Amino acid sequence: MDLADREVLISILNENKIFLKKSLGQNFLVNKNIIEKIISYGELKKTDIILEIGAGIGTLTVELAKYSKKVIAVEIDKRFEKILMEMVKDFKNIEIIIGDILKIDLSSIIEKPFKIFGNLPYYVSGSFLGEYLKKGPYADLMILMLQKEMAERIMSKPGSKKFSPLSLLLELTYKVDVICSVPSHFFFPAPEVDSLLLKFKFSPKLDSIRDKELFFRLIKSSFKYRRKYLINNLKREFPLYPWEEIFKKLNIDFKKRAEDLSLENYIDLSNFILKYGNKNSLLCEDNLIS
Ligand code: SAM
Asked: Which of 72, 88, 119, 193 to mutate to test the pocket of ligand 1 (most atoms within 8 A of CB)?
């Protein structure tokens, strides 16, 4: 059965009396070429362990299983459980988990090395990537379909209005390439916007950060009030550091906004402020050092 065929999908949904939910981003792929592209760019080997996010009725799941050792597929919608079990019954290497990817501790379901595949709903992509890129466990490779707006947001560069903590986190962990643009009519039902198919290769720069917790807090605080000068955001969130002195030492203009600094600038900043003493006593106003 060709699950990527629009008519097949519609008849399976009708037989099971399932109305797709917009709130869960249920726009299913109905284009075989894109599925083939996902598989080929995934550089699959028979030793690969795969995490699939949002299995739906298993369209991508069974294709992934043909070329890998094991697929662990997570799907939030319990209504698909019966269909999924039926679709994957001939594959001993597929494990279905009915659950919310935003609530699952990934290290409890998968071990490194592994790859991630998914056609991610818009509402999931930002939250998932935001948390995942901070703590891992990091997949060696990810092939993700993201709505164009989200894809452009995470890939934006310093100086762009779209530049955000998510772009910084991504640059810190993965190298991203656009595989292709995917028009909305390749999905059923067609979403309002097109998507981009992206390939993420693990390429970490995390080791150059001396205190990751401080770094993450620093970028979150920097972008909290995007229209204000960066130095004022930092003064507000970390009042006990001598920010004028730090900016001068690092040659950062007082009039820069959060989006103007590069990843390297933020790494330098977070490493540099460590020399001003124990961050825990400095960060909290209650612990003022006299
Ligand atoms: N993989 C299928 C495909 O490509 O045709 C379905 C993709 S559809 C865009 C997204 C899938 O993710 C839906 O089946 C939806 O129910 C599921 N989903 C939505 N939110 C989720 C979450 N928080 N955790 C796990 N799955 C989720």
From this structure: 119
Per-residue pLDDT tens over the stretch 59-87: 999 999 999 999 999 999 999 999 999 99
Helix, strand, coil shares, percent, the chain, to 5: 45, 20, 35
HSE-CB at 199 with a 13 A cutoff on CA atoms is 12
Q: What is the CATH number of the domain that holds 161?
A: 3.40.50.150
Boundary (domain end) residue, out of 204, 230, 258: 204
In this structure, the residue with its CA closest to atom 3 of ligand 1 is: 28
Instruction: Report, in angstroms and rounded to the nearest whole number, the Rg of the chain calculated over CA atoms.
Output: 22
Task: Show the tokens assigned to 266.
Answer: 């933020």
End-of-domain residue from the set 186, 204, 222: 204
Q: Could you identify the atom of ligand 1 that is nearest to the CA of residue 101?
A: 24
Domain containing 120 equals: 6-204
Q: List the one residue out of 42, 14, 262 whose CA is nearest residue 142.
A: 42
pTM beyond cutoff 0.90: yes
